[in-house]
Amino acid sequence: MEGQRLQQAREGAGARREAILRLTLSVGVQTWGTDVAALERYWKAADDLGYARITYGDGLGDWTHDGWTMLGALAVLTKRARIGPAVTYAFDAAAHHPSWLAKRALAVDHLSGGRLDLRLAVGAEDRGAADVWNAHDLPYPSPGTRLAVLEESVAIVRGLWRSPGGFDHEGSRYALHGARLGAQPVQEGGPPIWIAAMGPKALALTARCADGWEASYVSPDGFAARWQQLSTLLRAEGRAPGALRRSIELDASVTKAGGARHAALERFRIARGLEPGHPLLDTVLAGDGSALAERVAAYEAAGATDLMLGFVDFPSTTMLETFARDVLDGRPAM
Question: Does residue 308 belong to any structural domain of this protein?
Answer without folding.
Answer: yes
